[in-house]
Amino acid sequence: MAYAKGLEIAGYECLLYLEGVGADGLARSDVQRNFGYLFEQVHYGWDDIAPADLVIATIWYSARIVRDLPFSCRKAYLVQDREALFYPVGYEALMAEQSYRYGLIPITVGYWLKTELQKRHGVQAYALNFGVDEQIYRPLDDEQREQAVCFIYQPDKPRRCARLGIDALGIVKHHAPNTKIYLYGSHKSEARNVWFSHTHMGLISPKDCNRLYNRCSVGLCLSASNPSRVPFEMAAAGLPVVELWGDSMLYDFRESMGILCEPTPESIAEGVLTILKDSDSPVGARKGRQQPSVDEVQEFVTVINHVIEGATPSVEDVLRRYSNPMIKSSPETARLPVEVTCRVNAPGNASLNRLHPVLRKLLGWGARIVRTRLLN
């Protein structure tokens, strides 16, 4: 929504079409309530899109809608993640991958996605840097740093690796029992199988997020696909970040922000413990500054100007911004008592497997019925 507001400020007339059904007045109020922006022309549904100079798809199944519009216009595609990774191998994953081949001009959030489209599909894309609103995310003089870790815990989003983060923090608590653990980013009722003492903050405002980042010594955010915006916001607040080492991070995550770890509980714990032991180390983000959010929006407006003028993205080599080696667990960190090892090694369906076979069968039958009805 910040991009759309930036276009309006730049003089563009914007019509927003939301997924779903409802009255236009409700659509406007929903956008204002959820995103804080007021737009005059907001509609529910994609069946009656008015002619425009440019139409932008924002999710894989809207790309097909934009491709098949009955009027002539420029067509772009705001690619915010590699959405095929959100699904098991099948229809949704295949169609999400296919959406990049519809001839729309891609605009990617981050440079990893740009390299993915070029490498996998031979498609050139414009790319935007991850920006931060530094009026919100910034160091605060009145907050005292604690020996604490904050983890954005979102068990409803598999790509946010909730189980991996919890297991890593359990290992941290074993080796550094005085460390405070703060979970946030989901309803408190969603905290499942958290087997150590912690504080669940629930869903908190951006300003409260910034206060939390100023209070902690390490920020933990795990993303198995395109980077979240959260690590950049943590870094802008002066909080060193621990993230997953992987191709999706190397093009956008900067070395000044923190460290990238092998995707195992022990190695992530190693990264957290490393920063906790030396909280003033330059490995963190205390001296780094991220690009302000207003610049990211301006980048988007500039790209849209190019698209309107008929320009297309050029071929370019994208350099990795992170070149440090992957953090791996030391033997000391991996040396754990049986009770911790059992927790970390327990399969995801361990609780289900402890149920009586008849009850497991009934639960499986019920889940299949619900899934079938939802899909039909």
UniProtKB/TrEMBL annotation:
One Pfam short name: WsaF_C
Q: Which domain of life is it from?
A: Bacteria
Q: Which residues form the WsaF C-terminal domain?
A: 148-271
The name under which this protein is listed is WsaF C-terminal domain-containing protein
Source organism per UniProt: Paludibacterium paludis
**Top-down, what is the taxonomic lineage of the species of origin?**
Bacteria, Pseudomonadati, Pseudomonadota, Betaproteobacteria, Neisseriales
